[in-house]
Amino acid sequence: MSDLIATGTSEFATGAIDSATVLVNNVSPTDARHVNGVASAAIQIETVLGSASSLKGSFPDLATRLDSFASGSGVIDLTNDAGFAGPLSVVNGGTGLQTLTATKVLIGTGTTDVVLGSGLIYQGPSAVGSGSSITHEGIVSEGGNTKTGIHFFTDYTLSSGTLSVSAGAHRIIIVATNTITINGTISASGAGAAGGPSGVTGSNGGNGFAQPGGGGGNGLSGDGFDGGAALLHGITKVAGGAGGTSGNGSGGSAQSGASSVLSDPFSIMGGAGGGSGGKDINCEAGGAGGGSVVLIAPTIILGGSSVISTAGGAGSNGAADNRGGGGGGGAGNVYIFCRTYTDSGCTFTLSGGAGGSPSGTGSAGGAGATGVKLIHLYA
Fold first, then answer.
1. pLDDT at 300 (0 to 100)
2. Hey, which of 255-259, 263-267, 289-293, 359-363 has the most confident mean pLDDT?
3. Which of 47, 303, 305, 376 is deepest in the core (most CB within 10 A)?
4. Does an H or E element contain 377, and which?
5. Is 352's pLDDT higher than 90?
């Protein structure tokens, strides 16, 4: 190795390799001359890299610095963030951004930084305001329960059993920030508007939102009552089945109406009730309408064993005294709003309630209308 002497000028700064002449035989090594100064080269290297603890960068030595962004074979390691001082640009395979807002859609803009989409997200409720009558319930997994009204979750799972909707509740609305998973049964059967009552004085079935009710059959001495209508914004959308009149046969079966989706899905209600059956001495009750089921979440999963029922209740049979049968209740509807929908074999029961059979010379009640299922997928 050559002596480290401070003679000559190193070309290190311009990239040339430092070298020394071959020693001449029988000439003292101290007389050998260098083409470039090794000492000068070392000084310039230290100037670029630093020396010892003053090595440029925050790592203690050159080996540690190389390890921060290079693998053992010397290939640059892009999985190690410590090797980069800032965001990786788009042209080098990055986004150009240091932070990304949760659930935002990324939009490419050529070679410039990726931008975050405006309005292209689902942002479900994560809390409710102070004074609200509704509580945010967080992450819930249950095997069955009874619920009414509107419920907000982070994630909701019906793992098994039956989630029942109370009579007269009209609907169940489940909203989740992330995912709704149904493996059990949601039953809103008979949870809609009330049917016409039994007794000396009957009435038309109660009006509903989803589907109309069937008319009651006529009795020996009294006409049947009309089924409740399906309303939209307080206006009759589809009339209920007409009650039977003496000598005019059975109560009318209601016709299903096209299901409307309002701009406010929280106003959705259930089906209409069936009309009371005509009397001899007493009337027979109409069946209650079915409640509607509304599911709102980015991801909705219906398992193979899941069931969703919005069936209308059956009208009462004529017990005696030549009574007409009560009209069947109209079914509720099923509304699903989501981005990703998976149905592995859910059973949907959307039937209108059957009309009650008569006694004596009475006539049968009409059936309620069948409900509809609407799956709304959004981008």
1. 96
2. 289-293
3. 303
4. strand 373-377
5. yes
* Model confidence, pTM: 0.67
Do residues 355 and 328 touch, judged by C-beta distance below 8 A?
Answer: yes
Is the separation of the CB atoms in 156 and 145 below 8 Å?
A: no
Q: How far apart are CA 328 and CA 354, in angstroms?
A: 5
**Rounded distance, CA 196 to CA 373, Å?**
26
Q: For residue 363, which of 153, 234, 220, 241 has the smallest C-alpha distance?
A: 220
**Contact (Cβ atoms closer than 8 angstroms) between residue 12 and residue 42:** no
Output DSSP code: residue 204.
P
Helices first, then strands: H and E counts in the chain: 2, 17
Distance CA 224, CA 153 (A): 45
Please return the burial class of 19, using the count of CB atoms within 10 Å of its CB with bins 0-12, 13-18 and 19+: exposed
How far apart are the C-alpha atoms of 320 and 114, rounded to whole Å?
76
> Pairing between strand 230-232 and 235-238?
antiparallel
Q: How far apart are CA 298 and CA 377, in angstroms?
A: 9
- Tens-digit pLDDT profile for residues 291-346: 999 999 999 999 999 999 999 999 999 988 889 999 999 999 999 999 999 999 99
Could you tell me the residue ranges of all domains in the chain? 86-121, 122-379
The 3-state DSSP class for residue 230 equals strand
Which tokens hold the place of 93?
């395979």
Measured between alpha carbons, how far is 365 from 235 in angstroms, rounded to an integer?
A: 25
- C-beta atoms surrounding 252 within 10 Å: 26
